[in-house]
Amino acid sequence: MTERSCAACDCALEGEAIQVTIAGQVVEVCCEECAERLREAKASALRGEG
Ligand SMILES: [Zn+2]
Fold first, then answer.
1. C-alpha torsion 1→21→32→18, nearest 10
2. pLDDT value at 44 more than 80
3. Rounded to two decimals, what is the model's pTM?
4. What distance in angstroms lies between residue 18's CA and the mean position of ligand 1's atoms?
């Protein structure tokens, strides 16, 4: 599995990716906007849903 994709929008990652740590896991996203989305998702997950 060498192909990487954005953890937020699922598009292919080429060249430089942005690394975001979510719940102790490092994931890669294509842009800062996607990084923010993941951080927000984590924040709402921590509030107790699921
Ligand atoms: Zn993305």
1. -40
2. yes
3. 0.76
4. 9
